[in-house]
Amino acid sequence: MSRSLPLVTRAALLLLITVPTSNSAAWSQSGITWEPYSFASPSGAEVAADRGWLTVPKSTRDPDGATIRLPVVRLAGRGGSGTPIIWLAGGPGNSGIQAATGGTYPLFERLRALGDVIVYDQRGTGSAEPSLMVDGRLDLPASASVDSPAAREALVRVADKIRTTMRERDIDLSAYNTEESIADLDALRQALGAERVILVAHSYGTHLALAYIKRHGAHVERAVLGGVNGLDDRWREPIEGDRWIERVSERIGREGTLGPGYDFTARVRRVLDSFEANPAIVPLDGQQVLLGKSEIQLVVTLRSGDIEFVRSLPVLFTGLERRTKLDGIARAVQQAVRQRPIVTAMT
Length: 347
Description:
Layout: E1 14-18, E2 35-40, E3 46-57, E4 67-75, E5 85-88, H1 96-99, H2 105-111, E6 117-120, E7 133-137, H3 149-168, H4 178-191, E8 197-202, H5 204-216, E9 220-226, H6 238-255, H7 264-277, E10 280-284, E11 287-291, H8 293-302, H9 307-311, H10 313-322, H11 327-338, E12 341-344
Parallel strand pairs: 5-6, 5-8, 8-9
Antiparallel strand pairs: 1-9, 2-3, 3-4, 4-6, 7-12, 10-11
Helix pairs in contact: 4-5, 7-8, 7-10, 8-11
């Protein structure tokens, strides 16, 4: 049986999809009542925007039943065709509106040259009502492997806590899925008065975008998708991690900066074999933190879409092979996995 490298998401892709139809019709924004709204950009500058609420059915099977409210923010465009550009956040669970105050804002600022940029919190995320936000962290034991029975028991306890919290709020989790989010997105398009929209999406947002295109492709002028998650591609096999590591290794070889004969794939295999046979115990913040094969795999998986992290992989695995400066990756495991905030039941 072949050994498996980390199960990782694909390196960030950029896909431009153009749906050929006639020119977009002019559109109004009468479906949402806008109010002045401002927020601080990453540089600290105040950004003037508009904010409103979109009310949608909790379930498309019961259009006259309970409702969900989604906050929507509009960054006014400075020209372009007038076709609204809608940002679809990833996760699922990330807040689209919070993205405007973080590293994604420069992208939004540049897109404003093409038209209004619309960011919103998908159901179950951010400030959407009812709230699926949950306090607390995963709290996996620091001294046990992330795939140990002790870690699994901790995850079950977290799941029970989330389920109990949702029941106390009378929230039906079966209403929180991609099918309902497709309907929300089309309701947003209609509320904007737009015949067609441009979708810009990342990670899970690309999965939602592709599902929307499949259902409502005539209403999509263009789509820009980064870190693509296909319609049948939310479950990844270990072989995809092997191929991803091989692509990174090929790129390193083409650049040649690490010298002739440098084999990154072989180094990754050696490191994983070493930490599987002999996990390290790293003193960190008064705890003994276990760092083994599974922990390394998870960190690489979760950060494989971060190009700066990918560029640092040769240095990271050199340190791992020498077992030096392990506190950095041990801390990354704690933050990204064991002590990861729950944030929302959508995640």
